[in-house]
Specification:
71% of the residues lie in helices and 0% in strands. With 259 residues, it is mostly helical. α6 crosses α7, α6 crosses α14 and α13 crosses α14.
Amino acid sequence: MAALYCRKVTGAIPLGMAIGAVVYWAGALIIGETPAAVLENSSWLPPVSDFLDITFFRFDLATFFRISWDTALILIVTFCLVDLFDTEGMLISTSSKTNLLYEKRNMNRAMLSDALATVSGGLAGTSTVPTFAETNSGIAAGGRIGFTAAVVAVLFLMCSFLAPLAALIPAPATSAVLLFVGILMFAELKNIDFSDMEEFAPAMVMIAAMPVFGSVGHAIGLGIISYAIIRICCGRWREVSWVIYVASVLFIIKFFFTF
């Protein structure tokens, strides 16, 4: 993937994943495992009936209203913070690749789009629908505008009828994609001033926290807390926006009450 990307080959990531899958199955055939075995007992029709009966608009409001108000508030703030900072982290990472980082209008639209997707996912009973790091793979392949996302959405819908074929893509091939996306994100470290410990230390806290927590939002929260504490201890607290302090307090409450 890295070699194809350096040679500016369009679709370097899916091509690399396909090559990885071919190598995997070539080795599997040698030991007697065939792709056909993976497709056995697979259904080619999406489980629409299960989706409608089990998750779609299936709210359990009765249970929600039985919990205490403080627990409800913590739950709401927790989900809000995690989703907000997960989205901001991913948008900053992706928009920097497209030179749109400082386009305020575009960022507002992106945040609104992500919020609508998150709410829609909740209504449908699916897992959260925020901006994911895998978006970088689309940008690396040349995607820059919303038309790319629209095409991907249509292809995903079509793939719901081809879900068993996804089993033919082995975990090593998809893991390689995530690793390469991480490499693309890591390249943004060049924008950090390593001579300024007040900026460098919080950044390293975030980098170390991401694999530990498995969440960009949690990592950003720890980075914000450490940044605020360092600024206060250095006597430069006036240079920090009040938003940072509010976010720090909220994250501290979240970490103490939900972990």
